[in-house]
């Protein structure tokens, strides 16, 4: 039977609390980063020959936090991750460091003291994490629309309390009338009284996770991605003393010995727990959360939006993120074996939420979805959490083999969870750290934070001749290390910019970042386009476009053969298709829309489509479609009619159509009959809405279990 450590996330509640004088002494001895970043091969050699104090399994937010906390205390630390660092849920979050506005609403409604404490702790941690990496975290204003006058005093009271609970000089909130709200967010429905604007923290989650890993490594931790644990090592007393891991890139086995092992594998935590105890009951209930990325015109660049009271009863948000609009989220209980990509129904559910929320004069089209992705939130099972923890969204336990297991947690709580887990490892393993107290909340900065300032990008523009948006991106991504990236950048060959060859015209990513990404432990093409460069999460078609170029750059750095380079491209394309929403096939539910063409006509137009698709991409531009219509005798295509048809067939990609959509377009335009498209589309929308409502009713996750949300 496992022993559970009760974790209460509130100031001063740690069962491991030590004297204030001792903590002050520890802070005065804050360590400095003591080594250059070792290579992956150097870390592999160390794993083979070193006996560690702590071995951490899992390289997500919590695992990375544990490595940083342990290394800064002076413990010999190792971390292994089966895939890439942050490749799971930690790179697929809402990108917010929130205090938990929905949690506060629950606390007030149910007079729940523990919920108040969670909100207070989350707000404190939001500040701590911002201090860790100021270059990776920024405040984002979020609009909270008020639909009824009686909500004004209620919202004001909640936001006032929320602001008062935040430590330090956090930004407050303001009320704006409906006219100013619509000026700020033009696509919003006009049936509102006004809106409040408050502030939350936002970050690039994958880069944040990587920065924590790199910092832990600089402090002495040996970290290795693509290293899968397949078994645990035990002594004669059946105490866990390490793990056996397989390098996924070479197939070589490694035996890693440690006095304490920490299981921080998120949704996969039960699989590691059962390596320790085959009869262990389920402790983790994965909940799937889907997100979609839309063009920037869906959300103003300077403000996001959160609405807990949409017409269909769902809670949605729009956030400006890296020049795009991030929209979510749908929560659904799903087995991990059901895949790592939102289904078409989940995408349509989110689009349906948008249609019920924004101005009805604005067309919400499936083709506007640039990327669709999601992740599993590792919630503790309800029986476990209620029986063993005062905090409802994570549990830390000690198993029969003395392994520390962490189930649950959010980006906002990762640092504090890591601190408690390392405290538990020190006590249960009898470890002797150089510092008894964690310094990650007070005396630690992540790699690139020291020397960074918000206007540092201006120096990059002036000193190196980088374009402004490229310089801003480098500054906000690498912090003070941006100068190292700039030094290694290639000349552009133009008068301006002087250096910095872009990988894609629509993104500020440059070739030099690929070389930096390799130094930052990117081992595969997927590692690069998904988590070193976030383009896969922003626009899957753009990501596919740059695969050959990025692969060639990585091949030079990593000495890949031609066969390896082609294999990497193929695997990256598979990743985009299966996890990022880059499917070229129209979903079967859309096949209900008929095509009014004879067999001969279908063959004729299909052949014409193939001729237009010279590059064999599976798509044809709208311009080419118009040219094709003229060749069929259509003298002039009315703009409004073309818009209506494109809306009704919901073309697969902005400005382009696939074969099925091309045939529908030909049918509608050539025969002048668009009514049947609208009729079929209406029934399809009704079907999607009904399924969406049923899904929501079946998969509701309580606020206190989900981590509080906005």
Written overview of the protein:
Its EC number is 1.1.5.3. Residues 1-23 form the signal peptide. There is one protein chain. This protein has 710 residues and is α+β, with helices and mostly antiparallel strands. The chain folds into four domains: 32-91 and 207-283 and 381-429, FAD/NAD(P)-binding domain (3-Layer(bba) Sandwich); 137-202 and 286-376, D-Amino Acid Oxidase, Chain A, domain 2 (2-Layer Sandwich), CATH 3.30.9; 455-580, Helicase, Ruva Protein, domain 3; 599-697, EF-hand (Recoverin, domain 1, Orthogonal Bundle), CATH 1.10.238.10. It has 26 helices and 20 strands. The strands form three sheets. Strands 1, 2, 3, 8, 9, 10, 11, 17 and 18 form a nine-stranded mixed β-sheet that branches. Strands 4, 5, 6, 7, 12, 13, 14, 15 and 16 form a nine-stranded mixed β-sheet that branches. A hairpin with a 5-residue loop joins strand 10 (240-247) and strand 11. Helix 3 (61-72) runs parallel beside helix 8 (205-218), helix 16 crosses helix 19 (540-558) and helix 19 (540-558) runs antiparallel to helix 20. The longest helix has 24 residues, at 675-698. The two termini are 36 Å apart.
């Amino acid at each position: 039977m496992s022993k559970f450590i009760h974790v209460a996330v509130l100031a001063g509640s740690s069962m491991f609390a030590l004297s204030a004088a001792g903590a002050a002494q520890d802070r005065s001895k804050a360590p400095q980063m003591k080594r250059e970043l070792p290579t992956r091969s150097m870390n592999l050699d160390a794993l083979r020959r070193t006996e560690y104090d702590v071995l951490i399994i899992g390289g997500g937010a919590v695992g990375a936090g544990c490595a940083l906390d342990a290394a800064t205390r002076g413990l010999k630390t190792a971390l292994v991750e089966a895939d890439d660092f942050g490749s799971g849920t930690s790179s697929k979050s809402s990108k917010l460091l929130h205090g938990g506005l929905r949690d506060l609403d629950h606390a007030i409604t149910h007079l729940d003291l523990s919920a108040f404490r969670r909100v207070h702790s989350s707000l404190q941690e939001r500040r701590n994490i911002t201090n860790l990496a100021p270059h990776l975290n920024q405040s984002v204003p979020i609009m909270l629309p008020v639909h009824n006058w009686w909500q004004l005093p209620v919202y004001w009271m909640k936001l006032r309390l929320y602001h008062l609970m935040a430590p330090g000089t956090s930004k407050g909130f303001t009320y704006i009338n409906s006219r100013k709200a619509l000026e700020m967010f033009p696509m919003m429905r006009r049936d509102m009284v006004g809106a409040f604007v408050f502030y939350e923290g936002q970050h690039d989650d994958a880069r944040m996770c990587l920065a924590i890993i790199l910092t832990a490594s600089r402090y002495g931790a040996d970290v290795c991605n693509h290293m899968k644990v397949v078994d645990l090592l035990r002594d004669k007393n059946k105490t866990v003393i390490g793990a056996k891991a397989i390098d996924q890139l070479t197939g070589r086995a490694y035996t890693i010995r440690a006095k304490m092992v920490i299981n921080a594998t998120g949704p996969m935590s039960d699989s590691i727990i059962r390596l320790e105890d085959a009869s262990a009951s389920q402790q983790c209930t994965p909940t799937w959360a889907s997100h979609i990325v839309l063009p920037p015109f869906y959300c103003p660049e300077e403000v996001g939006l959160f609405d807990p009271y949409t017409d269909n009863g769902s809670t949605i948000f729009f956030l400006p993120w890296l020049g795009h609009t991030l929209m979510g989220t749908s929560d659904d209980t799903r087995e991990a074996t059901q895949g790592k990509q939102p289904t078409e129904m989940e995408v349509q559910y989110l689009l349906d939420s948008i249609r019920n929320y924004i101005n009805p004069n604005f067309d919400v089209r499936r083709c506007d979805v640039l990327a669709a992705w999601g992740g599993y939130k590792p919630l503790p099972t309800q029986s476990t959490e209620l029986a063993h923890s005062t905090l409802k969204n994570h549990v830390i336990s000690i198993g029969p083999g003395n392994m520390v297991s962490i189930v649950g947690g959010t980006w906002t709580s990762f640092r504090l969870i890591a601190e408690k887990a390392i405290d538990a490892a020190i006590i249960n393993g009898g470890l002797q750290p150089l510092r008894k107290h964690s310094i990650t909340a007070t005396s630690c900065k992540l790699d690139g934070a020291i020397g960074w300032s918000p206007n540092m990008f201006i120096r990059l523009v002036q000193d190196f001749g980088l374009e402004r948006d490229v310089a801003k991106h480098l500054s906000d991504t690498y912090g003070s290390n941006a100068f190292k990236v700039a030094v290694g950048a290639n000349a552009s060959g133009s008068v301006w910019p002087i250096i910095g060859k872009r990988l894609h015209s629509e993104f500020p990513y440059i070739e030099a970042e690929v070389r930096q990404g390799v130094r930052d432990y990117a081992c595969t093409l997927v590692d690069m386009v998904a988590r070193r460069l976030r383009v896969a999460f922003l626009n899957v078609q753009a990501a596919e476009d740059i695969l050959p170029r990025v692969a060639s750059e990585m091949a030079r750095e990593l000495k890949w053969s031609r066969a390896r380079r082609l294999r990497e491209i193929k695997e990256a394309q598979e990743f985009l298709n299966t996890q990022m929403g880059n499917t070229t096939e129209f979903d079967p539910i859309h096949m209900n829309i008929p095509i009014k063409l004879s067999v001969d006509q279908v063959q004729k137009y299909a052949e014409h489509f193939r001729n237009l698709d010279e590059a064999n991409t599976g798509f044809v531009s709208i311009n080419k479609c118009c040219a094709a219509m003229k060749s069929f005798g259509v003298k002039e295509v009315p703009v409004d009619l073309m818009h209506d048809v494109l809306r009704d067939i919901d073309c697969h990609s902005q400005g382009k159509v696939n074969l099925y959509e091309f045939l529908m377009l030909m049918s509608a335009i050539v025969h002048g009959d668009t009514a049947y498209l609208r009729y079929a589309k209406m029934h399809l929308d009704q079907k999607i809405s009904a399924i969406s409502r049923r899904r929501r009713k079946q998969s509701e996750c309580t606020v206190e279990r989900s981590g509080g949300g906005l």
